[in-house]
Structure formats: C-alpha cells, structure tokens
C-alpha cells in the first residue's frame, strides 16, 4: 500500500527561492535594526511577544476545529497547489533568489 503525500501550499511557497531569499534578507535587516536601535528593539520585542501570545491562543482555540475540517482543508490545499503550479509556470522569477532579481532590475 503506497501512501499519497500531499504537498502543503505554504511549504511550497516558503521554499520558492524568491520568497526564501527575500525572507532571509528581511530577517537580517530586522535583526540589524533591533541590534542598532535600542528604542526600536523595545517596540519590536513587545510586538513579538504579542504575536506569540496571540498565536498560542489561536492555535489552542482552532485545533479542535481544524481536526473536523481536515478533509475540506486538504481539498483547499490541493486546489491552491494547482493554482501555484500555474503561477510558477507564468512567473519564472519566483525560482530566482531576490539578489538576482534585484540585479536584473538594476540593469533595466
């Protein structure tokens, strides 16, 4: 019996070179900003704590519901993956790291 493994559309989007490299770049800028600006660090850390708290509450609240909606979520994920397939074919730039995209824009 072979198991069918379904890709998660979120995992696929995050693994696109343009998305992952842009995330890395923005994460670096964010960290450097926090390190170099003490007042912004305080604000950022407060915002981060707020997001963690909200996420924990949301996950605890949504978990029972998500279990019941698993078949519908799987269908939505499958449709989203098919849509992403079309977008990836239409926009090959998604398969390039952000640095390469920036360089090409500078040339134009």
UniProtKB/TrEMBL annotation:
**GO annotation, biological process:** lipid storage; positive regulation of triglyceride storage
Q: Where is it located?
A: Lipid droplet
Which species does the entry assign this protein to?
Periophthalmus magnuspinnatus
Kindly provide the name given to this protein in its UniProt entry: Uncharacterized protein
* Record's GO cellular component terms: cytosol; lipid droplet
Checking InterPro entries in the record gives: Perilipin (IPR004279)
Q: Which UniProt keywords apply?
A: Lipid droplet
Q: Which family does it belong to?
A: Belongs to the perilipin family.
């Amino acid at each position: 019996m072979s198991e069918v493994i379904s890709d998660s559309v979120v995992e696929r989007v995050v693994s696109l070179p343009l998305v992952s490299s842009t995330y890395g770049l923005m994460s670096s800028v964010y960290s450097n900003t926090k390190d170099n600006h003490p007042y912004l660090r305080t604000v950022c850390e407060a915002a981060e704590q707020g997001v963690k708290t909200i996420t924990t509450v949301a996950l605890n609240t949504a978990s029972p519901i998500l279990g019941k909606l698993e078949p519908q979520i799987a269908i939505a994920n499958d449709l989203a993956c098919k849509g992403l397939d079309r977008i990836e074919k239409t926009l090959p730039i998604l398969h390039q790291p952000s640095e390469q995209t920036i360089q090409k824009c500078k040339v134009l």
